[in-house]
Amino acid sequence: MKLDSMYQEVILDHYKNPHGRGLRDGDAEVHHVNPTCGDEITLRVKYDGTTIADVSYEGQGCSISQASASVLNELLVGKDVAEAQKIQETFLELMQSKGRIEPDDAMEDILEDAVAFAGVSKYPARVKCALLSWMAWKDATAQALGGADAERKTA
Amino acid sequence: MTQLPGLLDTEAIRKDFPVLDRVVHDGKKLVYLDNAATSQKPRQVLDALSEYYERYNANVHRGVHVLAEEATALYEGARDKVAAFINAPSRDEVIFTKNASESLNLVANMLGWADEPYRVDHETEIVITEMEHHSNIVPWQLLAQRTGAKLKWFGLTDDGRLDLSNIDEVITEKTKIVSFVLVSNILGTVNPVETIIRRAQEVGALVCIDASQAAPHMPMDVQALQADFVAFTGHKMCGPTGIGVLWGRQELLEDLPPFLGGGEMIETVSMHSSTYAPAPHKFEAGTPPIAQAVGLGAAIDYLQSIGMDKILAHEHALTEYAVQRLAEVPDLRIIGPTTAEDRGAAISFTLGDIHPHDVGQVLDEQGIAVRVGHHCARPVCLRYGIPATTRASFYLYSTPSEIDALVEGLEHVRNFFG
For this UniProt entry, which residues form the secretion signal (chain A) (predicted)? Predict the structure, then answer.
């Protein structure tokens, strides 16, 4: 059934047992919303130099947005910001592919559990759900680390 | 098949709506339960649109050639149909707009720029309710911010009705305008118009009614309503998108200032100043949505050939059946009145802690189209402490078996996320 391509077991697992949920100490906090469906996330990043010490979050939303935040936490915490940005960009590319990208081994190595969202990219209404926490993380990181690429983002 | 008293002959009606024959997702029969968002269009309306473009297309008013005269007659003929449909005392009280949002914005702007006694300013108050669609909240917030007027509203009871217990404190001598929804798009509640209008009239406030979810579903009589303005939209009542209506009492339309300026709305123009055409043209600047008005006229003909009282009875029977069947679904909570009494055919609900987005997605896979989210009425979601709802809404072509399909679909949703 086609639906299973969206609701992969990995996604449902992250939804039911989210990683790193809850707000903890951070260097910057952002609040992003998805106005079409009311999904919301408050997200904090904590850096140790350029290493991501923590990504903590609280929010409400559908299984896709909640699972995506959980995967983000699992994937990015402990990584250097440059590597994390590459992961974020790869995830963005996959989600904007409208189902046309079949993740290869190289992409799977980068995205790990996040490749499970490949099926979501076929559903335009749900892409924003999957991207909500990732755009929030990008925004929070720009604020925490400063720099020219700091941007205010609304979903 | 379930037989309920009051049902229309949906087998015949559905033949008029080509899209209802569609199959989606590899052979699933479309079950369209998103009628509060927009209705489907019968062949009669689609034909009127293409016939207009194929035979009559011209810009309206002032043209002296055949097509211009015929297009004008069709456009103004649509105004006559709308006037008769809502029992307006005069066709000149019917203003064509783009949609109900534009109609409501038009009222707010008329009052913001008006002279006394209509003027909304920093010493006056605007009253709305907590169950309004954003289109009947934001224009009034804008007006309040720009004029310094105070925005007040009626709250909601736990069972999804207006809390009018403090009506004398909410509507006061300072109130200039009371604007509220006749039938809620999220809760389905039918509001007690008389009680509110009586109080508004006591203090001399104008009354604007958002009839977007009423005009498609029940007989409308603006004289019986006794409001000053009534707004609704064409696409929810079998008409095309891009055409809305504002009805307003004639003396008000004569007194109140225009909002949009441009062609068609003037009498004379010099480089220093202009004088304006009489209503309704004063409020219809620029080339209007001509084909769309013609399409709305055809939609009204269609609805009247069936009978608005019969459509109301059909939807009431479906709503009674739906609330009863939905009550059988474990963990389902209806947000709004739980009986069909004083209730329209839009039913919002939550299903345990499964997010509506997920509910809608799994239903879609079975061919069932519902709406999920806050339905442009976020304050209602905040009031009931929920992020969003799933909403099923019915129309004249909806059937009991579609409600059965929804209930089965919800069982599937529960199993999927269980």
Answer: none
